[in-house]
Amino acid sequence: MREFIKKRLSLAITLVMFVFVVLVATFLVIGGSVALLQHLDIISLSGPPAPNTRGNNGKHLFPLFILFSLCVLLGTSLTAFFSKKALNPIRRVIDATHKVAGGDFSVKVEIKGIGELEELSASFNKMTQELSSIETLRSDFVNNFSHEFKTPIVSVRGFAKLLKDNNLTEEERQEYLDIIITESERLAALSNNVLTLSKYENLKIVPDKAPFRLDEQIRRTIVLMDPKWSAKDITVNVELDKVIYRGNEDLTQHIWLNLLDNAIKFSYRGGLINITLVKVNDEIRFVIQDGGPGMDSHSQIHIFDKFYQADTSHTVKGYGLGLPLVKRIVELCGGDVYVQSNTGKGSIFTVVLPC
Of 36, 46, 47, 125, whose CB count within 10 A is highest? Predict the structure, then answer.
């Protein structure tokens, strides 16, 4: 608070000093001019003119009028000159803004001296850094989406052409058909995820709210995912308090499905997943912890961005849509979701929902 007040005062003091300098300069010029005119006996400040000098009133008033006009002109000129200097930092920000509007996100602004302008400079640089990151993410999004969508289509087309060969054995024909079915299901899953995320992004209010057992829903989700975690010999430890939650059951189901699926995908074979659900005061807290490879700080910042995948090698199957969907649904429910992770030490996802 003190730092904020100090910065506010610094700008106020700067403006006061600016006006003070202009006034002092104007006063000195006016005073010097009056003294010079009086010394040359052009004007007299000693008293009113004698009765026999009435005709000279014009002589006294005209120089004063000229002096007044010069004062106005001088004050305006000095103000314009110093204003131009004072506004140079703002012009630099405006020029930088035009460059950003043109797509140059590498531009930086360094302004020193005045608290508010330093803060503006820091905020502007932070904005350009975020915009640069978003532009990179957008480019990655296009590349990833094109890769995820194009690969199964090419695969389906290729194996469909092979099926036209009459010399194939029945075993080869069945193998190619299975590949086509798998790739078609992959395309369907990708399309379904995109449509689901788009649907909930445009949703403003959670419909059809009703009370239900949240702990039972999570148990059913774990059982539903049994084939996946059993296939990797993963142990799932579960500690769920009895929690009755009022919301949309189908909507919240997506949260647990995606978080558990994500934990299974990144867990090592024979690993461990801990799941807890507790109610503390007016909050419901769900925590899922895996023992996978974890994430660096950059991945944690972008993990909830659409189509972002920390694993750029695509060794782990995924589309980068599960966690953005989780975040959007949690936000619709009035809650929050965040991640704690260290490279090589697994990840902890925490969902907080209001009671």
Answer: 125
- For the entire predicted model, the pTM comes to 0.52
- What is the radius of gyration, based on Cα positions, of the chain? 36
CA distances from 173 to 152, 164, 182 (A): 18, 10, 14
Domain ranges of the chain: 2-127, 210-354
| Fold for the domain defined by 210-354 | Heat Shock Protein 90 (3.30.565)
pLDDT at position 43 is 63
Q: How does pLDDT run across 321-346, given as a tens digit for each residue? A: 778 888 888 888 888 998 888 888 88
